[in-house]
Structure to design on (712 residues):
């Protein structure tokens, strides 16, 4: 099929066997690629519950039909596996240079099983795959490791010391970008796999290159003109959200005891830009260029994203931007996820404050970051316990009600008591407390549009629509930020005008219509390339019958098959939950609506999804989606 | 005295983080006019801001007619965020 290299390979690190893995064109049509196709592969192969560090756990690395095309913001790729942090299926998405080089080397994806006896890396050069010794790079930081492994033109994907020592939230790094969440790096480490390098000269064929190119140019121009992707994100990066989050009570502060931080002004995107920014930067093929390059002491380093600023900043009562930049750099070098690290520290600080764990940690005292990051990465002293994340700490020391995770994965930067839809998203997300997999509802609830964050009305239907859309974007190979351009600029540019105000007011009341669309995505059997170019470009790249409805349905199918894997791994409806702090303690004592009313929304959510009251997809739903049990 | 805190594009266009006035404009509309005149910013642009009055979204108040008696802080945020 055009748009694909039509080759996925399975590599067994125990035996050294390398064999082609057949993916049918039908599965390509149904799942496209990325996290959805990876979930299908895992669903077909992991038939029984296993531990994340079991030899049979699979690392499924997948590209997508838009990868290696020139489509805007399409250099991303995915890695899925059973997470050591959640015990469930996880997927982690990454920018950087690896995904498109994997395709250049001749492969759409890799399936890695088994365990090597000694440190190794996988080298792929134009379809030639070798498992090579990596003992010279073992113990090295992620930056140095990328220099040591593979040729200078190769795409790299490596772990640091944290991954080697199986820190449960270790990530995998490509250039300065990270597949950060849920411990995919720890699974690499458990397999003694230091990294993968890929390079090649193969060319991707497109179904209709002329039409593809013409639309893509228009899309790039649209992204450059859009107020979010052409103005705000290039100028302030994701950190530009901090001010808005503060005023809307969405800024996770002191282990989510509050949505506001008194000293937030010191850690805004504006402060980062004015005091530290050298330039902005983007992934290959990305016109948005949201990444920050900042000066830090005598170095030029990657700047922190909003998630890092919040979790290592306000969440720890830390208003020292330089300190956050330093910690961000070190987390990247050692190879750990800044979100879970910050959240785990916040939880440990509150345990100490409450006298439940004497660990020497204190809110507002973050000058020892360097030492702590080292201790976590090498599992030394309290670092060994911090390396396990919040859920395992709460099992040992108590405090489950304020261990800020869902299904074992720590929440992102957004305090959800000011955004009911975001709360529902955190609770129902397949990979745990993830803002993106949860549907990123805060974009509707204050950080883009201004739907009332305190109402539950319509939120289940919107959350499902955006969860499915985000899933489709990942499966197709687009950066999720390209979805912002779907929101018409006129709704964003002047929120005080009559039309945007009416839209914000009416939107929660049209939940029934959205729910109907959620049930019948094929009703959207059109392509509107000026609005949603993704489906049109996939059609031109692959020749598939693709339109908006089918595209959203790919997302729904992916979401459901991920759910089925999780059910196989023991997930029940009781796991779609939030800590009691969020469901029982008011964020704003004067506002009774500032708790997440999860029970109300969850029932609606299951019903609209076509799941039974136990959160299990019904046979009717699975049949509609073409998923076989 | 009213302190106006600026964020995003408005901040870079105005070239300042915080602006204060000792005069007592009667409502948000009057305050924005004062700021626009003082800093040479287009009033139309200021009116596209997301505005908080002592921490309360002005959409929950009387928008541009919100009275400023007793108010100490107004925040003007960029209409778009995203991240």
């Amino acid at each position: 099929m055009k748009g694909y290299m039509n080759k996925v390979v399975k590599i067994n690190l125990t035996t050294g066997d390398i064999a082609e893995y057949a993916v049918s064109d039908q599965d390509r049509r149904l799942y496209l690629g990325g996290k959805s196709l990876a979930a299908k592969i895992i669903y077909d192969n992991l038939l029984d519950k296993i531990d994340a560090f079991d030899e049979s756990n699979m690392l499924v690395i997948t590209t997508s039909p838009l990868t290696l095309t020139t489509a805007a913001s399409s250099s991303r790729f995915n890695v899925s596996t059973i997470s050591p942090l959640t015990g469930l299926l996880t997927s982690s998405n990454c920018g950087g240079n690896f995904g498109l080089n994997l395709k250049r080397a001749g492969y759409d994806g890799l399936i890695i099983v088994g365990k090597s006896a000694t440190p190794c890396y996988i080298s792929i050069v134009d379809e030639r795959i070798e498992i090579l010794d990596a003992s010279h790079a073992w113990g090295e930081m992620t930056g140095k490791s990328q220099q040591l492994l593979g040729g200078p033109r190769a795409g790299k994907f490596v772990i640091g010391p944290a991954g080697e020592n199986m820190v449960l939230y270790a990530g995998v790094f490509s250039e300065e970008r990270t597949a950060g969440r849920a411990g995919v790096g720890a699974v690499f480490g458990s397999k003694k796999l230091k990294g993968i390098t890929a390079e090649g000269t193969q060319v991707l064929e497109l179904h209709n290159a002329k039409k593809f190119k013409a639309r893509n140019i228009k899309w790039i121009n649209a992204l450059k003109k859009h107020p979010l992707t052409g103005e705000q994100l290039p100028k302030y990066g994701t950190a530009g959200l901090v001010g808005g989050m503060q005023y809307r009570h969405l800024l996770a502060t002191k282990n989510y005891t509050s949505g506001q931080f008194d000293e937030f002004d010191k850690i805004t995107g504006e402060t980062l830009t004015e005091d530290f920014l050298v330039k902005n930067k983007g992934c290959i093929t990305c016109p948005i260029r949201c990444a920050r390059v900042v000066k830090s002491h005598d170095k030029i380093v990657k700047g922190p994203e909003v998630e890092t600023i919040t979790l290592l900043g306000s969440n720890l009562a830390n208003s020292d931007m330089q300190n956050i930049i330093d910690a961000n750099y070190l987390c990247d070098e050692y190879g750990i996820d800044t979100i879970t690290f910050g959240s785990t520290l916040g939880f440990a600080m509150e345990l100490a404050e409450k006298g439940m764990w004497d660990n020497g940690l204190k809110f507002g005292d973050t000058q020892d970051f360097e030492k702590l990051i080292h201790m976590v990465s090498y599992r030394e002293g309290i670092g060994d316990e911090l390396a396990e994340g919040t859920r395992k700490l709460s099992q040992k020391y108590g405090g489950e009600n304020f261990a800020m995770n869902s299904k074992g994965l720590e929440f992102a930067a957004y305090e959800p008591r000011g955004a009911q839809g975001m709360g529902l998203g955190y609770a129902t997300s397949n990979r745990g407390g993830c803002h993106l997999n949860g549907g990123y509802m805060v974009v509707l609830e204050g950080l883009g549009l201004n739907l009332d964050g305190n109402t539950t009305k319509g939120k289940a239907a919107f959350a499902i629509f955006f969860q499915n859309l985000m899933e489709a974007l990942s499966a197709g190979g687009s950066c999720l930020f390209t979805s912002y351009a779907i929101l018409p600029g006129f709704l964003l540019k002047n929120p005080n005008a009559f039309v945007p105000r009416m839209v914000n007011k009416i939107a929660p009341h049209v939940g029934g219509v959205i729910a109907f669309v959620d049930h019948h995505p094929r009703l959207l059997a059109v392509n509107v390339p000026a609005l949603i170019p993704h489906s049109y470009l996939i059609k031109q790249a692959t020749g598939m019958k693709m339109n908006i409805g089918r595209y959203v349905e790919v997302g729904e199918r992916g979401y459901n098959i991920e759910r089925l894997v999780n059910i196989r791994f023991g997930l029940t409806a009781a796991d779609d939950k939030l800590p009691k702090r969020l469901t029982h303690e008011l964020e704003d004592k004067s506002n009774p609506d500032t708790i997440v009313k999860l029970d109300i929304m969850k029932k609606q959510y299951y019903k609209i999804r076509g799941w039974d009251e136990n959160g299990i997809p019904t046979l009717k739903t699975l049949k509609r989606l073409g998923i076989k049990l | 005295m009213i302190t106006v805190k600026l964020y995003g594009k408005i901040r870079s266009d105005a070239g300042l983080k915080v602006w204060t006035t000792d005069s007592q404009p009667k409502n948000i509309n009057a305050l924005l006019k004062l700021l626009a005149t003082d800093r040479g910013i287009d009033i139309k642009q200021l009116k596209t801001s997301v505005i908080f009055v002592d921490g309360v979204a002005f959409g929950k108040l009387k928008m541009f007619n919100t009275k400023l008696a007793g108010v100490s802080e107004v925040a003007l945020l960029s209409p778009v965020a995203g991240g």
Q: What stands out?
A: The two ends of chain A are 26 Å apart (CA to CA). Chain A touches chain B through 35 residues (CB under 8 Å). The longest helix of chain A spans residues 548-568. The mean pLDDT of chain A is 96.
